[in-house]
Design a protein that fits this description.
Chain lengths: 348, 348, 348, 348
């Protein structure tokens, strides 16, 4: 941490800052400059609180130098984390993972039928919301527990792994019982009781980036999971809020190489929620793969115009087939491949 | 809802849209234009889902016309909502309310002492976090239940009402037991299980605007509370995320008159979290009052440099006195006043 | 400037950074830390280029410490700059200035009539566009030179000072010939040839903040004016672009106290362009004054529904009278006043 | 244009809106709805001004339906525009164009040497700034006319086409004399006198997206060029301003398919300015190609640590070779190619 003094700060003020740093238990070093003095806080373990220094007299600015996250950092662990799902499928390796499915589970045959179709076309993980966070209290909120059972049924019949979202701490345990990956959605990226519970749930967690989260805030949210002992975290870029209006959110593909350099965790992209527009999902899905994503998460619906939510961004089944072909071509162009679905595991 | 067709949409495509609208249970009316046809959806009760129409062939854009929120709307209820706290203090009337206190409850004497000081200087509600949502898992997370007890003690001794934040559904019940107002923080504005519980907790709720929430999303979050039967909702503008870096967030004072025209709910402003800088709290606090806010929420600490969190934005006690003076002057300039603290209610 | 090395940077890499800094003509000082080494660049005159260091091997981040602007800084000049207009009216003193008028000059009698009305109600400077920057090439682009002449006529008859915008370097000279203040609009805040010419035009300059300019970029744009010898610069906050949609732009009132602490230049606010909505101009105008603005710039039109541009944000004459009353009340509440219009200067 | 009335608008107010629309020369049609009436403006030629209606009594909102741009629209011209450079190289066809070079022309041998290197590795157009728009008045501002001459020399010797930026109307003519493509930079996207002159300069124009421009504003800026008779316009996405801080700007790759559906103009991407970080240029360059860009513009410098500007984002020559290889691979994966440089045209 570096404390910049005002150009006319007095020696007493500099001394006071040095004293405050020492009182916090760190070492301080004054650095005279051409225009102003700076005071460095030495030995920061990531817990030093800038706020204590910010408001002291004569202080112009406090610049954080040490990053607040630890276990998610590549400086903590150099090699890439490989997240293994319960059937042995690996996320974060050379081969990409494709997660697909409808926005919401709408019924048993809907989800089972689409699961068969998706598996045939090469998806390895099935998505589908059972608990839906909806902006309006009057919108369809999901089938709940019944939805989880339908997802489990689809897994039994197709061998696809299942990911679905939990909305509150108790929901985490319920979802973890039925699904292979517990999703924490964008709206809940800083829901700390939820993150803590997900960190103890015993299943891999898919952590979506918050609507207006910086990379550092996102990695700190992941840190909550690792701090509770769960290393199996998959990050998912899904677009951020901006002034632009031509897509629902602004897909931040630079986040992919940036996260890969800062952290060892795998990162995938969700072009469906990022754009909100079916016709942009394929080009942006290709782009995410080209940028280095470890996989994609896309919405596919057997009959998008009649979907109970997010129909406008759901691909038709034949578009999903087209996406898979193009993703394979792009993956090969950068010496990667796409993970194939496994054989159905008999659960008898 | 208005469905704009592409300029070269065929008659069949227009018919398909009309059919889809009717299948959703609404009336449809085609509106030929100079460049393109539009189809109006008539009789929308606020539940019609744009997504169903967005992706239909020949559709260029779907424009929402009906607002999704209802009970929070001024069209639902014309007169201003007055929220009464348990000691009879009213929020949303001619007189402004001033909520003040430290970021976090740090100990019994800290909170009791500051409460006495705040009451002497004119605050009517005491704030102080017992459960703190922190970006890093390694930061101080609050005293929890003990903090709630200290807040209750401060109320007993000063007569100040108490507001503090709840982080999860179970926490709502706990907070409602000890506090007079349950706060839902910015990070939890779209935490729907939390909102539902707060809507049933029997206490007024202070709902902060989310970091990147539109006014409509914020009002829909409030709608969750009203939909559960809780009409005692106070909105709080606390700045939004933007590209600017000179303050922590960008205080959106236009939100105040805009919310007042769209909704009957009272709205206050929090210049402390909005700016993150002590020296900007007074000018922005004055500005919020001038813009029409029904009150302010500010952080005050007896010894900001030694605060356990957010010290840089906390006012010194003498600055709070100065703020109160200036707020009174501005309030009078626009024919309003500032609510005075009540006498201590004996709890013997 | 502080160069943060990666946690595993080698000694050679640190030496290379030190060498690069010395080759740039500055002193370097290595600062060992708990997690990583930093290298400070000492003696920066504001011209040291971070880019040279950013890409060196082992470098994690380069943090600017010295600010790039000089003459606009309060560290360069402590006391407030007072800008004197040609009739002696002062901008930046205790009393506020109110600039008002239509978006565009539409004809001689329109501008002369409104000028009389505005003067009667207390405005001191008349605004009105002769050259209009329009998003579409098919929109009304202003009356040009004829518009300048009409503005001069209005000044003759009312004694109001005149401000109007220049769009290109040649236009600056033309505007400076007719107007008392040359306006550089938001779209041109980083039009450097225009700024250089305005810096040599011999008239005060009103510099609007760019649509997405940081405070530092804005002050650097002002620095272009001062660097050419023009110290008479008035800054104008007019809202920035954001994700919000309830007003056209997001008025950033925190910019007012922030600019006042960083710079000695006067700063006013334009609530008309910031909101784009007539009904929000009065509350936001009041708020700007409460935040410490040195004046306001507002659009007023004799007949807004028939304005040739920006009618929706123009006040009716009687609303302007109401604004003036409220602005006076707020100004008095913070011990300031409003500058009264001077007597007509006979030009015979 | 659709005018939404307030839910309690009177019949007189509706009539007044209908009258105002007719007075503007258009047809009006009232559309009764479930909650409120709307009035459609029929026959809009793109010039109807929403502002006239926005502020009328009883009006809640005015929704633009007709797009303000015309000639740039795909509805005006269905097939893709192919821009031909003076040596016959085509921009906008199946094969991608790669524009490369240093941020600024620093000297004759620097630019000629790098041009040879770039040509050998497959670039077809040379970039290099002669007039540099710099945030600070104290930064290097380019070599000016001399720089243009050095660029022309590099073309003579390598056959590469040349693109460079003009900063003011007179500069456009000068640049057009020496270069093959005139660049309008992000800061000048709404510099209308500059655009008008560029629209009459007789050379193709590369129009960068403004820092915070919507797609519609960008297309309207291009419309200024086409309205002056210049159809040879190449758009360039270079990132927009956002709250994120991990890259200099946020590259908006969704803009590529969105622009391609709205307009017939070719669009390329500039990952160097978008990221500001050398190590992110290759993954984002690949992603832009995968998203459907018609080409790339990248900064390459023979010795980035000693570049006079933007060194941190400039590729080393060997990184440029790597980029070219990967771009070719991605282009082939989506059935496109990369345009090869032509033989040197003897100018003797």
């Amino acid at each position: 941490m570096l404390v910049l003094m005002k150009y006319n700060a007095s020696e007493e003020q500099v001394s006071e800052v040095v004293g405050a740093i020492r009182a916090m238990g760190y070492d301080a070093r004054s650095i005279p400059g051409g225009q102003r003095t700076a005071v460095g806080l030495i030995g920061n373990d990531g817990r030093a609180d800038a706020n204590r220094l910010q408001g002291l007299p004569g202080v112009s600015e406090v610049i954080p130098v040490t990053r607040a996250y630890k276990q998610v950092s590549r400086e903590w662990r150099e090699e890439d984390t490989l997240v293994s799902l319960s059937n042995g499928t690996v996320v974060g390796g050379t081969d990409l993972i494709v997660i697909a499915g409808p926005c919401a589970v709408e019924g048993e045959s809907q989800i089972v039928d689409i699961a068969h179709m998706l598996r045939d076309k090469g998806a390895t993980v099935l998505r589908g919301g059972a608990f839906k966070p909806r902006t309006s209290p009057y919108s369809f909120q999901g089938l709940g527990l019944e939805g989880l059972r339908f997802l489990a049924r689809a897994r039994e019949q197709t061998g696809l792994m299942v990911v679905t979202e939990a909305l509150d701490p108790d929901g985490v345990d319920l979802v973890a019982e039925y699904a292979d990956i517990v999703q924490v959605g964008a709206r809940n990226m800083q829901n700390y009781p939820l993150l803590r519970r997900a960190g103890r749930c015993g299943k891999p967690v898919l952590l979506k980036r918050g609507m207006s989260a910086t990379i550092e805030e996102w990695l700190l949210a992941a840190e909550y999971l690792l701090a509770e002992g769960n290393d199996d975290v998959i990050l998912c870029e899904r677009g951020v809020r901006s002034f632009t209006r031509h897509t629902r959110n602004l897909l931040d593909l630079a986040a992919i190489p940036v996260v890969k350099s800062l952290s060892h965790l795998p990162i995938i992209a969700d072009p469906s929620h990022a754009t909100g527009l079916r016709s942009k999902v394929i080009p942006l899905g290709r782009a995410a793969v080209a940028a280095g994503a470890d996989g994609l998460m896309v919405e596919v619906h057997p009959d998008p115009p009649h979907a109970m939510s997010d129909g406008a961004q759901s691909l038709y089944p034949e578009q999903f087939a087209e996406l898979m072909e193009q993703v394979e071509a792009i993956a090969h162009a950068i010496s990667r491949g796409v993970t194939a679905p496994l054989e159905v595991v008999s659960t008898g």
